Amino acid sequence: MIKRALVILAPGFEEIEAVVPIDLLRRAKIEVVVAGILPGVITGSRKIRIIPDYDLGDVLEEHFDCIILPGGAEGAENLKKDIRIKELLERQILKGGWVAAICAAPGCLINFGLFLSNKFTCHPSIKAEIPLSRLEENSSVVVDGNLITGRAAGSAIEFSFEIIRQLVGEEAVKEVNRSFLSNLPMLGSIRKE
């Protein structure tokens, strides 16, 4: 069965943190659906304009194995304002699905009161939002339960490979990297047991 991932774009999203997961997950033969919180073109933090596949409202009832939240300071603030995202994430957690958030987007999870005991990494600019006992600030990517968090745009490749690893396995990571040729060690990330 083909795995499915949803990438949610909000105005001001960090382009690298959206496009790298979309690209690498598709290389891993994961079906990636890109949805905007507004209809039409969504403009990122560097003024790159992306046309999502769907409006978020059109995919709220669909099944996804992973929901991915790109960061970007403005993008994360816009995600926090959309109650549909909170409800979508609550349903994802209840059914045991994966959630992945990078950069400033882990702050959305805290804001929504989700993943109350999980370890996180995030961009240093929002680390004050994460309880210190749960913060892994020196880690590029952290996996805790069904939550994957990434530190920043520079972690986008490692973050994406971790999503692939969790959804379709280590062999898929190696297969994608055969043509992608990342120099990152493909050893996995910090995990809370």
TrEMBL record:
PANTHER family: PARKINSON DISEASE PROTEIN 7 HOMOLOG, PROTEIN/NUCLEIC ACID DEGLYCASE DJ-1-RELATED
Name recorded for this polypeptide: Putative intracellular protease/amidase
One GO CC annotation: cytoplasm
Segments forming domain DJ-1/PfpI: 3-166
The entry's keywords: Hydrolase, Protease
Keyword Hydrolase: yes
Protease found in the keyword field: yes
GO biological process: glyoxal metabolic process; proteolysis; response to oxidative stress
Pfam families reported in the protein's UniProt record: DJ-1_PfpI
Domain of life of the source: Bacteria
Organism, as annotated: Methylacidiphilum fumariolicum (strain SolV)
Phylogenetic lineage: Bacteria, Pseudomonadati, Verrucomicrobiota, Methylacidiphilae, Methylacidiphilales
Transmembrane segments: none
GO molecular function: peptidase activity
